[in-house]
Specification:
Elements (H helix, E strand, L loop, with lengths): L5 H4 L10 H16 L5 H17 L1 H9 L2 H23 L4 H11 L5 H8 L3 H23 L2 H8 L10 H17 L1 H5 L7 H21 L3 H20 L4 H24 L1 H9 L2 H8 L10 H16 L12 H6 L3 H4 L11 H33 L5 H17 L11 H19 L6
Length: about 450
């Protein structure tokens, strides 16, 4: 296989552009989009524009399929609602229309689920290779840190490491990569009769080790809780899945082996994990006594004050919200900075509350509609044999992990939130987008 030819790396059964050169450009954009997600925002945008321009140039081919698609139609509604949110934000924060528009431009990209679905072509081989590209890029970004002895020394001593980015963001990526390795172990190992099978298993075990240690070294409690919750939520589905018994046993064996390794590593770091949670004991004491206003300004204490302010502010405009970029200036003008001893307030440290306060009940409903349509498409693909059950389990575990992690961190305010969702939900939705219904002749 020629690795320099995107069409061979990302195969598909149907044409995705009106000209081979456009298809090559769009697929190259998909590869860049995935490769640069954890490397460079600007280069990630280059991939995004390549996909967009190639699809726009192929509009005669794509028009019927896109106009009949539920997520694409929802994308148009979401885009219009973002315009309305900008206007509302300018009402709540006069003179902020330009800032509102800059933020809304990022939020609109939730609709790029369908862009990723288009270029993946609904092919399981292509989806699997996309995830390999995502993991490979993140592994190369993280590898230099693991080769630095002082990082290991500090991490093993319980120090907090950033890995070249915000620790919450690096924790999110470590958690995602770890869940992918656990649920897609069979895909990493390959067939038992293939060459290098043992080496693949060994490399997989090493990757599990590094991803687990990286997650622990970030000292991000929200991500720890999120990973445990994602694994717990997937366990019932794993046990009752409809996969053939022999295949299911192979899947369970891979996940179980990886999970045992994770537990063993976590047990070795239990002292530091417990001490990290113990830092919030004064907050829990204040909450148990019923005096939440007296919580100290620890990490959790600040979040509680932010959440209370956000919840009460949302009640000023419950249906439509306060605008996509109104929370930060409104919070800065309130009594919050004094309560938080001058702590800077970039966001509410809760993506779902941020979404609710910014776009109201209507905006949250539209966001959930994207998730439900993508999930329904993934379920259809599983039932028709176009996606394996282990991939659906991984998507479910990642979704639950992502859901829980965003209760304590506002990834939504960062650019990376939207391509992350587009790549994961787009890959889940791609087979249904291509094969559930045929465009009109």
């Amino acid at each position: 296989m020629n690795l320099t030819a995107p069409r061979q790396w990302f195969p598909g059964t149907q044409p995705r552009a009106t000209h081979p050169a456009l298809e090559q450009a769009g697929l190259a954009g998909l590869a860049i989009y995935a490769l640069m997600l954890t490397v460079s925002k600007d280069l990630c945008y280059v991939g995004e524009w390549l996909m967009l321009l190639a699809l726009a140039a192929s509009w005669p081919l794509a028009r019927d399929r896109l106009l009949r698609d539920g997520i694409f139609r929802l994308f148009l509604v979401w885009s219009a609602y973002m315009v309305l949110s900008c206007v509302l934000g300018a009402y709540w924060v006069p003179g902020s229309l330009g800032d509102q528009a800059m933020v809304a431009k990022r939020w609109v990209k939730l609709g790029f689920i369908v862009l990723v679905a288009w270029w993946l072509g609904g092919d399981w081989r292509t989806i699997r290779r996309l995830y390999f590209v995502l993991f490979l890029a993140f592994a190369f970004v993280m590898l230099p840190y693991f080769l630095y002895p002082l990082y290991w020394e500090k991490g093993l001593a319980g120090g907090r490491l950033r890995f070249g980015m915000n620790p919450q963001r690096s924790a999110l990526f470590f958690a995602t990569a770890l869940l992918g390795l656990l649920f897609l172990a069979r895909d990493v190992w390959g067939d038992r009769l293939e060459r290098h099978f043992r080496r693949r298993v060994a490399l997989w075990g090493l990757a599990i080790l590094l991803m687990t240690m990286g997650l622990l070294f970030t000292q991000t409690r929200g991500a720890w809780i999120a990973v445990v919750t994602g694994l717990a939520a997937s366990l019932p589905m794993l046990l009752i899945g409809r996969t053939a018994p022999a295949r299911r046993g192979w899947t369970v064996a891979g996940s179980a082996m990886g999970l045992l390794l994770v537990v063993a590593i976590g047990a070795g770091q239990w002292t530091h994990i417990a001490s990290r949670f113990a830092e919030e004991d004064p907050v829990f004491t204040a909450l148990q006594s019923g005096h939440w206003q007296e919580v100290p300004n620890t990490s959790l204490g600040r979040r509680i004050r932010l959440w209370h302010w956000g919840w009460t502010s949302w009640q000023d405009s419950p249906w439509l919200g306060l605008g996509v970029d109104s929370i930060r200036p409104l919070a800065a003008a309130s009594d919050l900075p004094r309560q938080l001893d001058g702590f800077e307030i970039p966001h509410l440290h809760n993506s779902w509350l941020e979404l609710l306060v910014s776009t109201g009940v209507v905006g949250v409903g539209l966001f959930l509609a994207f998730a439900l349509l993508a999930a329904r498409g993934g379920w259809w693909a599983y039932r028709t044999g176009r996606l394996p059950g282990r991939f659906l389990l991984m998507q479910w575990a990642v979704f639950v992990m992502f859901l829980v992690a965003n209760f304590s961190e506002a990834h939504i305010t960062k650019w990376i939130f939207w391509p992350y969702l587009a790549l994961f939900w787009g890959s889940l939705y791609s087979p249904a987008f291509w094969f559930r219904q045929s465009p009109s002749p």
